[in-house]
């Protein structure tokens, strides 16, 4: 059991953002009957390559061969080919609860907060009703999946910002009562309305009432809504060869835009106990962002916002962010911002993060005082999501 690296004790760590690879027939099984013929599916094209489909149409993100790469953490060859399928390319720990628990034991991980894989791409749908129905189906399934794990696998509900906010709030409440420990949304929506906008008040009010965190989680944004399209070769729909590098390296840009809107619209004054989490977009930038928001807040431009206090005040009171274990420069930022504001996350089993993340995690937290290590490794996420001992 890998419980210690370089003298740093990791046993009992809690992964704040792990992923599950859903059964490919999840939505055909869990969707309400009226939507099942429009379900997200994995298909095979004439060249034997899998692709993703929703509402009977190929998805932009699910280019031929893409599904087989989704469980490829640590693999060196994820080039599209017929033999690399969604099922064959997925480790058992990504799809089976018992295998996931055994995998966690081998890493010294006590609990894992789970997010979807295929479900991250649901936001591509411009049909708000269909998107919301897929979220409901996923939420029912993930609670079932985690139900026999002894509280070690933590289900998080997906909510759509394209859904009617009152309906989204109702689904969040239903999912939490069924067992979900929080909710998350994507950093964009087809209304092009920032998540801090008062129109979303019913959703935030429900999260505050339930005393559960809401998180922003990144995905591959549709071309029309993506923030990485300044250069002409990146603006071409379907050009994933050029796009993927920019998307992964600069993922924080879209997340920052979504996150900053919460401050601009005074969300944390309207909901002074709501809990907000930023995931999978690194954490080293948060020191810069808080400094910059505070600086702008102090000058006349800051008076155009709805905030009553400095942005860093709200962050210290109501926000948390997850760090990638291979962020070598993040430890000083943790000390500067405050160690009670940080989680760590593996992103297992996705291929855009490293496979030796526990070793990297030990290096990341090694410079921190012991109390801060415990906060980052397990204490903060346990308290925020109320995971118990």
Ends distance: 20 Å
Q: What is the count of β-strands? A: 14
CATH topology: TIM Barrel
Task: Give the C-level CATH assignment.
Answer: Alpha Beta
> Strand arrangement, largest sheet?
9-10-11-12-13-14
Question: Helicity, in percent?
Answer: 25-40%
Query: How large is the radius of gyration?
Result: 20 Å
The helix/strand order is EEEHEEEHEHEEHEHEHHHEHHEHEHH
Q: Mean pLDDT score, rounded? A: 93
How is the main sheet built?
6 strands, parallel
Commentary on this structure:
With about 400 residues, this protein is α/β, with parallel strands linked by helices. It has one domain (about 5-25, about 95-385): Metal-dependent hydrolases (TIM Barrel, Alpha-Beta Barrel). Helices cover about 35% and strands about 15% of the residues. The protein has 13 helices and 14 strands. The protein has helices at about 25-30, 95-105, 130-145, 165-180, 200-210, 240-250, 250-265, 265-270, 285-300, 310-320, 330-335, 355-365, 370-385, and strands at about 5, 10, 15-20, 40-45, 50-55, 55-60, 110-115, 155, 155-160, 185, 215, 275-280, 320-325, 340-345. Strands 9-10-11-12-13-14 form a 6-stranded parallel β-sheet. Helix 3 (about 130-145) packs parallel to helix 4 and helix 4 packs parallel to helix 5. The chain is globular and about 60 Å long. The protein starts with a strand and ends with a helix.
């Amino acid at each position: 059991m890998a419980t210690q690296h370089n003298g740093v004790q990791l046993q009992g760590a809690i992964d704040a953002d792990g992923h599950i690879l859903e059964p490919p027939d999840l939505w055909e099984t869990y969707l309400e009957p009226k939507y099942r013929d429009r379900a997200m599916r994995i298909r095979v094209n004439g060249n034997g390559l899998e692709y993703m489909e929703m509402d009977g149409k190929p998805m932009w993100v699910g280019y031929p061969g893409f599904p087989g790469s989704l469980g490829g953490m640590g693999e060196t060859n994820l080039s599209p080919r017929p033999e690399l399928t969604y099922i064959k390319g997925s480790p058992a720990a990504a799809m089976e609860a018992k295998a996931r628990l055994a995998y966690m034991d081998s890493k010294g991980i006590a609990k894992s907060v789970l997010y979807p894989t295929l479900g991250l791409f649901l936001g591509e749908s411009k049909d708000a009703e269909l998107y919301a129905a897929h979220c409901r189906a996923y939420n029912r399934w993930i609670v079932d999946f985690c139900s026999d794990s002894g509280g070690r696998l933590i289900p998080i509900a997906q909510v759509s910002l394209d859904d009617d906010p009152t309906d989204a709030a109702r689904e969040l409440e239903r999912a939490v009562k069924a067992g979900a420990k929080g909710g998350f949304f994507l950093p964009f929506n087809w209304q092009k309305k920032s998540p801090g906008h008062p129109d979303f008040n019913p959703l935030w009010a429900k999260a505050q009432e339930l005393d559960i965190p809401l998180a922003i989680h990144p995905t591959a944004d549709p071309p029309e809504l993506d923030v990485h399209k300044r250069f002409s070769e990146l603006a071409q729909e379907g050009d994933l060869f050029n796009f993927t590098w920019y998307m992964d390296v600069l993922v924080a840009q879209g997340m920052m835009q979504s996150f900053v809107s919460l401050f601009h619209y005074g969300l944390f004054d309207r909901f002074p106990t709501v809990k907000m989490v930023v995931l999978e977009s690194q954490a080293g930038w948060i020191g810069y962002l808080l400094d910059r928001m505070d600086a702008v807040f102090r000058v006349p431009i800051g008076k155009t916002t709805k905030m009553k206090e400095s942005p860093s005040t709200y962050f210290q009171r109501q926000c948390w962010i997850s760090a990638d274990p291979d962020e070598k420069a993040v430890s000083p930022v943790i000390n500067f911002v405050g160690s009670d504001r940080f989680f760590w996350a593996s992103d297992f089993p996705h291929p855009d993060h490293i496979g030796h993340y526990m070793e990297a995690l030990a290096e990341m937290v090694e410079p921190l005082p012991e109390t801060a290590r415990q906060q980052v490794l397990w204490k903060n996420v346990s308290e925020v999501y109320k995971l118990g001992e």
